[in-house]
Amino acid sequence: MTAQLGQTLTIERLSKTFHIEAGPLTVLQDISLAVKPGEFVSIVGGSGCGKSTLLRLIVGLEREYEGTIHLGDAPITGPGTDRGIVFQESRLLPWFTVEQNIAFGCGSDLPAAARRQTVREHIALVGLEAFATAYPHQLSGGMQQRVAIARALVNRPKALLLDEPFGALDALTRINMQQEILRIWQSERTTVILVTHDIDEAIFLGDRVVVMSPRPGSIRRIVPIDLPRPRSRSSFEFIDIRKKIYAEFFGEEETLLDYVI
Amino acid sequence: MAPHASDKTAPFPPAVRLELGRLPSPGAVWRRLHPAPFLLPAVAPAVLLLVWEILCQRGLIRLSVLPAPSTIWLTLVDLLRSGELGNHLLISITRVLQGFVVGSTLGLAFGFIIGLSKRVERSLLLITGLLRPVPIIAWVPMLILWMGIDEASKVTLIAIGSFWPVLLNVIHGIRNTDRKIIEVAQVLQKGRLSLWWNVILPSSLPAIFTGLRIGIGIAWMSVIAAELVAASAGVGYLIMYARELSQPDVMLVGVASIGITGLSIDVLIRQLERRVLRWNVNIQTN
After folding, report:
1. What stretches in chain B show pLDDT beneath 50?
2. What is the dihedral of CA A167, A171, A172, A175, to 10 degrees?
3. CB-defined contacts A:B, below 8 A
4. Average pLDDT over chain B, rounded to an integer
5. pLDDT for the residue numbered B6
6. ipTM of this complex > 0.85?
7. Which residue, A105, A236, B24, B48, has most beta carbons within 10 Å?
8. Phi, psi of B209, deg, nearest 5
9. Chain B contact residues (CB < 8 Å to A)
10. Which residues of A touch B176 (CB under 8 A)?
C-alpha cells in the first residue's frame, strides 16, 4: 500500500455553543490542537466534556462554530471524503451485506471495477473475507465494528476519526480490536483521532493523549506517550503515565492507591 | 441459516465450550413426534367442527338456521363442481386486484410525497384527518350515485379502502428512518437520490409491506361490502342471493371462501416480504 502524504489537521481557538431552550450552552471552549500527518492522537475525558462534539465538528456534521478547523490548507465547512468516522455503534445499513456496506462508503465518482477492487482490499484489511456476503445481523459486535472501520477507510481519508468505537464491546474483544486498529493504522499510515473514556486505551494507542475537562469542554493537558510499540500495559512506564493521567481526573492524593490491573 | 459468527479470535477454543443440550428437551421430543407444523393450529378448528356436527346430528341446532358442517361441505363441493363458486370468486378477486392496484399505487405515491416534505404533510393534515376515519361502507351510496352500480364504483371503493393503510404506513416508515444512519450518508456525502434509494427506501420497506398487507385485507373486505349492497356477481352477491332463497349452507360457503381467500392472500404477501426483506432479523425469526 502506498504511503499517503497526509496533511496537518489544525484546530485553532475552537469554541462551540449549542442554543438550547435553557439558553446558550458552551460545550467546547478555546480548543487548539495540531495533529501531524500520520499521528495517532487519543482524546480522553469524562462524559459531557465535548469530546464527541469535537469529532463531529472535525467530520463536518456540526457547523456554526467559532475559531478555525483546517485539514491542510482547506477549512472544514462540511462532510468530505478526506475524513472518515467510526461511531460507537457500527451504524451499518442492515439491508446491505458487508460488501455492499463497504461499497456504500465509496465516493460515487469511482468506476465500478476500481470500486470492486478497493472493496475487496478493505474487506481483507479488516480480515472479513469469509463474511463478505453476510448481513450485519449475522456478525458479532466486533466484526460489525471492523466493517464500519473498513467503510470509513475505503476512500483513503487523510484523517480517521474514532468516536469511542470499542465502547460497546466486551473487554476481550476490545483489546483485540485495539491491536487491530494499530495494525490498520500502521499499514494505512493515516492520521487517527480516537475519542475514548478509557484511559488505558488512550495510552495504549496514542502518540499523544489529550486530556479534556468538562463544562465547558477544554483541553486540560496533552501528554506525549514516548513508548515504543507494541506497548505493554503492565510496564513501569505505562503505569507511570496512567498515574499521571488519573491524577488529572481525580487529583494527586488518590493515585497513592496505586492502580494495577 | 447463517450461524451467529463469533469473533475471529474467540477467547476459548471450541473444545472448551460446555456441551449443553445433549439431552433433548421435552419441546424437542414433542417436535420430533409431531413433525407437521400445521398440526397444532388444526386442532382447535377440528374440535369446533366436531362439536358443531354432533350438535346438529343430535338435533340441538335448527338446521335451517345453522346447517351441519357436513352439509356445508357437500354444498361447497357442489358449488365448486358447477363452477359457480369459482366464477364468483374470480369476479371478486379481479375487483380486489383492480382496486388494490389503484389504491396502493396512490397510497405509495402520496406517502412518498408527504414523507418527502413536512410542508405537504401540514397542508394536507386536515383533509387526511377528516377523510381517514370515514368507514368504508359510508362511501357506498355516494359512489353509486356518482358512478352507478357498475364496476367503477366497486373498484373505487376498494381503492379508497386500501389507500389509507398504505399511505399511513409509508409515511410512518419514511419518518422512522434511523437518524444515525442518515448521518452516515451525510458523512459519506451521499446525494439526495442515493440517500433515498439506499437508506430511506429500504429502511421503510418493512412498514410499506405492513401497509400493503393491511391494505389488501381491507380491499378484500371492501369488495364484499360493495357486492352486498349492489351487484349481480361476486362472493358478496352469492351470500345476499342465498339469503333471499334461504340457503344458509350457501351463505356459509360464501363466508368460508372469503376467509380462506383472505388468509391465502396474507400468506402470499408474507412470503414475498420474507424474500424481499432477507436482511430483517425480526421478520426472518417470526
Report:
1. 1-3, 5-21, 286
2. 60
3. 71
4. 82
5. 44
6. no
7. A105
8. -60, -40
9. 2-9, 11, 180-181, 183-184, 186-191, 194, 198-199, 202-203, 205, 277-281
10. none
Q: If you search the block for the grid coordinates 421435552, which residue do you land on?
A: B26
User: What's the whole-model pTM score?
Assistant: 0.76
- Edge to edge, the sheet with strand A66-71 lists A23-35, A9-20, A66-71, A74-75
Residues facing A71 on adjacent strands: A9, A74
Yes or no, beta carbons of B278 and A135 under 8 Å apart: yes
- Coil, strand, or helix at residue B120? helix
The x, y and z cell numbers of residue A253, run together, are 492524593
Q: Which residues contact A116 (CB under 8 A, 6 or more apart)?
A: A103
- Where helices occur in B176-247 by DSSP H, the ranges are 179-187, 192-194, 201-229, 235-244
Cell numbers describing residue A171: 473487554
* Joined grid coordinates for residue B100: 388494490
The alpha-carbon gap from A203 to the nearest alpha carbon of chain B, in Å, equals 23
* Contact between chains at B191 and A176 (C-beta distance less than 8 A): no
Q: Grid coordinates standing for B91?
A: 369476479
The residue type found at B73 is W
Question: Is the Cβ pair B2, A134 closer than 8 Å?
Answer: yes
Q: pLDDT (tens digit, 9 = 90+) per residue, A14-56? A: 888 888 888 888 888 888 888 888 899 999 988 878 888 888 8
